[in-house]
Every structure is written in structure tokens, then in C-alpha cells.
Design a protein that fits this description.
Largest sheet: 2 strands, antiparallel
Structural class: mainly alpha
Number of helices: 13
Helix content: over 70%
Number of domains: 1
Number of strands: 2
Strand content: under 5%
Shape: flat
Radius of gyration: 23 Å
Distance between the termini: 83 Å
Order of helices and strands: HEEHHHHHHHHHHHH
Amino acid sequence: RWASVIRVFPEVVGDDGPAYSSPTTSGNTRITDAQRARAEGRSPIIEPGMQPAALTAVLGLLLAGGAALGPYGLLLPLVLLQALTAAGWFRLNGMWPARQGIALAFAGGLVADGALLAVGRENAAPAILGTLGAWVLLCLVLQLRSHADPDERMYGLMATVASAALTVIATGHLGAAPDAVVVGGIAVAAAVLAKALPLPGPVSVVAALLASAGAGIAAGGLTDLGASGAVLGLGAGVCALVGLRAASYDYPSRFVHMTAGIALPLTAAAPAVYLLGRALA
């Protein structure tokens, strides 16, 4: 039976039968890119790529368009952003399934949205900070009731608090001036698309920041911010790159890229949009 094999591949058959090479992961179609990178000892930083960047850009434009329509027009894309943030952060930390934690973090974002709509944009900071404080306390109480071992309980507490904090902070888009949200959403869209281009690392960062500043100028011309939109666009772009870097860390899976990779650039930009929007108004 081995005669035909010996004639075709004489070098892989010895006296005792066929010899096989060392196992490899490169030919396994079921292994993920993150698993392959980890197995091969490559960098733990895996950027989301163009598809999540395009979806981030779409969501940023939806935020910008919703802000132009009013607070209730902004609410739907904001809720979607908060849902992606809550789910993506838990998966980024390797905690899955974590339905209760995700639901708790997402509920914090919804409560912050409702509180802000109730008290008005002029009281956005107390509404956001008050909800954040209450949700941190709630997360702490719920984790103290857990029967898990101390290390797992602490890890779950940190992930839940961080996820809830990010989800609540995203409400900053709702509390910011509408013109600032328009400029910030467009600037983040430009930044993530530029960062996804196949350029060397430092060059892609510079290109992303220039794109965000340029988009800020262009969007500022459509609003009352004018040329000062460049400052807001640059600030939002810097924060977006920080969020994108976080979503790229520790061999992220495709699910992380399609949740945290989409949401974190916009979520991280919320404080810049809120603060710079008020400062430049």
C-alpha cells in the first residue's frame, strides 16, 4: 500500500512507515487569528481593521445626524453605542458569558440617558456623575453577594465597574452641545478610517489625527463652531485612537473587534466632545 506513497514522497517515508512533520497551526482553518497569533508568539496588539472602522464611521455619522435632529434623534444611535460598549468591554476582558454584568452596565447607561433627558442638558454633569456613583455602589453591593472565590470576585467587580463607567460616560454625547456632537462624530469617523489604512504605525497615527482635525474644520464650517472645530476634532481623534488601541489589546477576538472595536473610539471621545464643546461654544 505504501508503494505509491514512496514513489511520490520518498523523503517522508522511512523504514518504519510514514513520518509526519511537527504539528502547525497555520493550516487549521478553524483556529482564529487571535489564537494563531498567540500560538506563534506574535504581538498581542491586533487592530480591528477596515470593517469595524467603517461601522464605527457609520455609527459616528448617525450620532452626528441624530444630534442635528435633537436629543431624541440622538438617543437611538447612543443606545446602540452603549450596548456595544457594555458587551465589548466584558469580552475584551475575557469574561463570557457575562449576561448579568452586561445587562447591569447597559442599564446604567440607560438610567444616565433618562436622568439627563429629565434634568436637561444644562445639568448633564450632575446627571452623569450621579448615575456613575450610584452604579459603582450597586456593582459593589452585587459583587459582595457573590459566592465566587475572592480573586474571581475582584476581577468581576473591576470588569463590571469599568464597563458600567464607560457605558455611562458615553451619555456625554447626549449632554454635549449638538454642534459639538456633529463635529465629534464626523471627526471620529475620519480618524478610524484613516487609522485602518495599510500604513506604517506612526504614519497611520499622524494620518488619523490630521484626518480628524481636517474633518473637524469641515464639520465646524457646517455649524457655529467654525474653525475651532479643528480643536474639537483633534481632541476627539486622540481619544478615539486611545479607545481603538484598547480594543486592539491582548489578542482580541473577532467578537471584540465587532463590539469594542466599533464602540470604544466613540465612547472614549465622549468626554472630549462634551468638555471641548462647552469650552469652545
